[in-house]
Amino acid sequence: MASGQNSRGPHQLMPAPPTDLPLFSGETDRARSRPRSAALALALPRGRDFKGFWESRFGGKKEQEPEQNGHANGVANGSVRKRTSDLAVYEQFEQQARQTEVRAAAIRDGNADAIQKPLLPSFESAEMRNLAETLLRDIIRGSPDVKWESIKGLENAKRLLKEAVVMPIKYPKYFTGLLSPWKGILLFGPPGTGKTMLAKAVATECKTTFFNISASSIVSKWRGDSEKLVKVLFELARHHAPSTIFLDEIDAIISQRGEARSEHEASRRLKTELLIQMDGLTKTNDLVFVLAATNLPWELDAAMLRRLEKRILVPLPEAEARHAMFEELLPSTTSKLEVPYDTLVEKTEGYSGSDIRLVCKEAAMQPLRRLMSVLEARDELVPEEELPEVGPLKPEDIEVALRNTRPSAHLHAHRYEKFNQDYGSQILSQEQA
């Protein structure tokens, strides 16, 4: 009998434990009073729990590829790794069983509203769960706390985003059938114009879970893990729906696919999996939205461009928006100077929102530099409580700031306009149409 057991695999030794049995350590007194099944009574030694029995038999064993398989034609294969222990699978089972018992107790006691959704969904393997844990750092729990009012200008982009994402979540009754919401939205435009802030404002307005994803989040050095990370990402997003997946700098992830010889196989598999997952969103009613941002929309793959159905230009700020930014960053009451806002607006044509912030920062640094030169000329260090206040802003400080800060985002303005004319989404009035 012993020899027969040793010849069997771990999954042939006993059937999967039923979920209604107390198979984990720390079971309640009420659970201990339940009779165990006949199969488990034969399989488990008396006085030992399931986890201890499994660990003693199989927990120390790890299946591993032979070392010579890690080299093909003398080239090291970095994908050879130890497989996850079988014990990890049953540790996951134990955790899920505890969560099920807690939820059942809360429902029984009438506290169903207090139940919190678990951070991770149920995965089919411990490996997928481990990959999911690496993505948890990219989840912004709760609201990013960015309001529409904090974004100056960009009225057309705001209206399109509200129409594509906010309204379907607020009024799902109207967005069914042909009017089902867009699942893929592309924000394109010069760098520093507020694409990331728009995405966070959407998450704040809709109270959705926000996944801030970059290329480093889903690209792995291990063979096959990149496409698994993409699959796990979308599983997490469905679990936390309504949710927003923000793919920043998407051109670094899925640029135009080249010839088979010029593109790495891992890159092709990653792009293919991402396209498959985005196709899956359009076939379900899950409120999962993909917001992608890029500074180079003309480099995106055509298949991805098709899945990003709504393409919104985030342009450089207009004169009115620039005026509002200067009033907020350089208020006259704080600077003790009548700031020439009209002159600033006129001289910052072609500046992005990020450039305007740098202009204001550079202007505010001028009084501090004058104070630093005085303090550094002293022989002794001035105690913090005796440090003088920073002096007021002068008109020449603003002139110096404008000379020292040049626009960084105006070089490809015509290309963005051309792309917007060819592929962009706009709201046209009847007169414009």
TrEMBL record:
Q: For the region Disordered, give the residue spans.
A: 1-36, 60-79
InterPro entries reported for this sequence: AAA+_ATPase (IPR003593), AAA_lid_3 (IPR041569), ATPase_AAA_core (IPR003959), MT-severing_AAA_ATPase (IPR050304), P-loop_NTPase (IPR027417)
Q: Which SUPFAM superfamilies match?
A: P-loop containing nucleoside triphosphate hydrolases
* Residue intervals of the AAA+ ATPase domain: 181-318
Q: Coiled-coil region(s) at which residues?
A: none
Write down the superkingdom of origin: Eukaryota
Gene Ontology molecular function:
ATP binding; ATP hydrolysis activity
- Which Pfam families does the record associate with it? AAA, AAA_lid_3
Q: What is this protein called?
A: AAA+ ATPase domain-containing protein
